[in-house]
Design brief:
Layout (H helix, E strand, L loop, with lengths): L15 E3 L10 E6 L9 H14 L8 E5 L3 H13 L2 E7 L4 H9 L3 E5 L11 H11 L3 E2 L8 H17 L6 E5 L4 H13 L4 E7 L4 H7 L31 E5 L1 H15 L5 H17 L5 E6 L13 H6 L11 H8 L8 E2 L4 H11 L3 E6 L2 E7 H10 L17 E3 L5 H7 L6 E5 L5 E5 H9 L1
Bound molecules: pyridoxal-5'-phosphate (PLP).
């Protein structure tokens, strides 16, 4: 029989998945360590069980005890699972900016939640750090793991995440990327990897509103860097003991918006339905990779959690628009792009029986690079000038053949309300243009050039 003795034995050994689409144009291999495969759907299961078991060994946590923690949700889930499996109670303090889903999920696994204000300094007695500490003092036989300063956090990653990545890449890893919150994921893993291979480059991802990047670069803890941001789970207004800046070679900051859009792209283009900070990690990693990664390099990016926790936020189009994350100037959707093109937009098409030579002359005369091919009323294919050129070089005789013999796939039809990010994720080398049918059943074309115009105004 093959089974686990309890849910906590299923923690770790998460898969490494190659990123294929969002990495277009990047040299080297970019792999995501997908931590939502943990039973609590996040990387934090690893540290939760380690902190609990280390506390049991040290005699700090005794049978019937209560676990109290300030958490952005994921550590809470890991602790709650450990508590259920081992018979402890849980109380969690959370900042009110955290998503309702995260709170509901924790309640679902039996935890009590205390919601605290986000926009107060950590020393304020109302902050979720202070409230957790106070509850720990007041409740007998309680254990406050304090993931920020508890070094079992870093140790969990040194003992599990690091060796897993080393084994999975057979030591070929050259770049390691992680968001930095408590610092455990970044530094525990980096410590292990650098011990095995000192020149593994470690890239930390920070967010605007957090202190890490400036502190790393100048040694200054700058209060002016601190302001409320939306991304959840990383970036800090404190320096946790689990952050060892010597283990982080460089820090990049990523905006809430870039992170949200990248998380959505990971879901739609890679099938990785991930959380917001995963978008930050990948956006920052690719910014670095675009400039520095070489053909033989192997980059591993940690994706901390799952997308379900953000359904009401980054996966909700209305929320995205409210926050200005989907708009690009006045061109929010395919409808807007078509409207601005109105007048110049009569859809040019070419019949499938026209000769290739005549088609080329038409493309040149009209100054266009691609055109839908029709058979009567139906769109049956497409011509793209760059492809035609290589076909003509290979066989000049085809200029006398009908277009139907050389045409490519018909351009995809997309919805009138498709937003700019969706449109841009669908246009690539193979799909040079998209077709849209309006309310009057007229067909319009949107090309790469139209998207660029819409994005730059
Ligand atoms: C969603 C999410 N992303 C990133 C992190 C950062 O990881 P770490 O605390 O190990 O630095 C966390 C930690 O809470 C998280 O919950």
């Amino acid at each position: 029989m093959q089974y686990y003795n309890s849910i906590i034995e299923t923690i770790g050994n998460t898969p490494l998945v190659k990123l294929n689409k969002v990495t277009k144009g990047i040299k080297g291999t970019v792999l995501a360590k997908v931590e939502y495969f943990n039973p609590g759907n996040s990387v934090k299961d690893r540290i939760a069980i380690k902190m609990v078991e280390d506390a049991e060994k040290a005699g700090i946590l005794k049978p019937g005890g209560t676990i109290i923690e300030g958490t952005s949700g994921n550590t809470g889930m890991g602790l709650a699972l450990a508590a259920v499996a081992k018979g402890y109670k849980c109380i969690f303090t959370m900042a009110d900016k955290q998503s309702k889903e995260k709170m509901d999920i924790l309640r679902a696994v039996g935890a009590e939640i205390v919601v605290c204000p986000t926009n107060v300094v950590p020393e304020d007695p109302r902050s979720y750090y202070s409230v957790a500490r106070k509850l720990n003092q007041d409740i007998p036989n309680s254990f406050y793991p304090n993931q920020y300063d508890n070094l079992s956090n870093t140790a969990a990653h040194y003992e599990t995440t690091g060796p897993e990545i080393w084994g999975q890449t057979e030591g070929e890893i050259t770049h390691y990327v992680s968001t930095v919150g408590t610092g455990g994921t970044m530094c525990g893993t980096a410590k292990y990897l650098k011990e095995r291979k000192p020149d593994v480059f470690t890239l930390g991802i920070d967010t605007y509103g957090s202190v890490f990047k400036k502190y790393k670069e100048t040694g200054i803890f700058d209060q002016n860097e601190i302001y409320p941001y939306l991304t959840e789970g990383f970036g800090e207004d404190i320096l946790p003991k689990n952050v060892d800046f010597d283990l982080i070679d460089q820090i990049i900051k990523v905006t809430d918006k870039d992170a949200a859009i990248m998380a959505r792209r990971l879901s739609r283009e890679e099938g990785l339905f991930v959380g917001w900070s995963c978008g930050s990690a990948v956006y920052g990693a690719l910014e670095y990779a675009r400039e520095h990664l070489k053909e033989d390099d192997v980059m591993v990016i940690i994706l901390p959690d799952h997308g379900t926790r953000y359904l009401a936020k980054i996966y909700n189009d209305a929320w995205m628009k409210d926050h200005g994350f989907l708009e690009s100037r006045d061109f929010a959707t395919a409808r807007d792009i078509i409207q601005t093109k109105n007048g110049s937009d009569r859809l040019l098409t070419i019949d499938k029986d026209i000769k290739v030579g005549d088609a080329v002359r038409m493309l040149t005369k009209e100054g266009i690079s691609q055109i839908p091919v029709t058979d009567g009323e139906n769109i049956v294919g497409s011509l793209i000038d760059s492809k035609l050129l290589s076909q003509l070089i290979e066989n000049p005789d085809i200029k006398e053949h009908p277009v139907s013999e050389v045409m490519g796939q018909a351009f995809k039809f997309v919805a009138l309300d498709s937003t700019l990010d969706v449109l841009s994720s669908l246009i690539d080398k193979e799909n040079k243009a998209l077709l849209i049918r309006d309310e009057h059943n007229r067909v319009h074309i949107i090309t790469q050039a139209d998207l660029l115009m819409a994005m730059t105004g």
